[in-house]
Structures are given as C-alpha cells and as structure tokens.
Amino acid sequence: QVQLVESGGGSVQPGGSLTISCVGSGFSFDEAVMSWYRQAPGKERKLVAAITREGYSAEYESSVRGRFTISKDNRRNILFLQMNHLGPEDKAMYYCHTIYHVRDYYGQGTQVTVSS
After folding, report:
1. Which of 11, 56, 68, 87 qualifies as a FRET site for 110, CA 20 to 30 Å off?
2. 48 closest CA partner among 32, 72, 67, 64
3. Residue 99 β-bridge partners
C-alpha cells in the first residue's frame, strides 16, 4: 500500500533554515507528481509546493517562492523541502502528498515551529 513518511521537522529561530523529507513506498515514485502541503493550527491545509515526475519543474505558493525549494530523488524515493528564511508564518504541520490511482495520499506530517 501507499506510504508516505515525513521526517526532519523541528524548531528553528526566525530567519533559520530547515530541510524536511518524505520517503515514499508502495507506488511508482519516479512516475508520481508530488507535493508538500502545510496546515497551521485552526487553518485549512494548503499547498506549498509541487514537483513534476522527473523533478525538473516545480511550482510554489506565493508566500514561499524564493525561500523554499522542493526536490525529488527518484533513485531513493525521497521528496525534500528545503526551507530558508523561516518566519513565524511558516509554523505548521507539513505533509507530503501524492495522487495514486485517483486517490489522494498524505503522510502523517512533520511539525515545523519557528520561535525565538
């Protein structure tokens, strides 16, 4: 079955950096369009970044463009999100996402906290 397992979350100071990752299994990772979503307390889950199957092209939500970079290692089945210049507005639970056989899959999430 499809599994997405995130890791790498933690607490950083404002202006700091963090890279989170997601290991995928149970599907053809190299054929999957993949995304990162985030959900802040009391708010809806929102798309942060998405990357094409081959990993050559990506799109970003406007508030993270230029600060976050999504990447995909198809040999190791790992999705990354490098986050720079983090601010309090970036505090959220971050989820890895893919669609397989017309069904949405999310991981369990990894928490990112930005605090001085």
Report:
1. 56
2. 64
3. 104
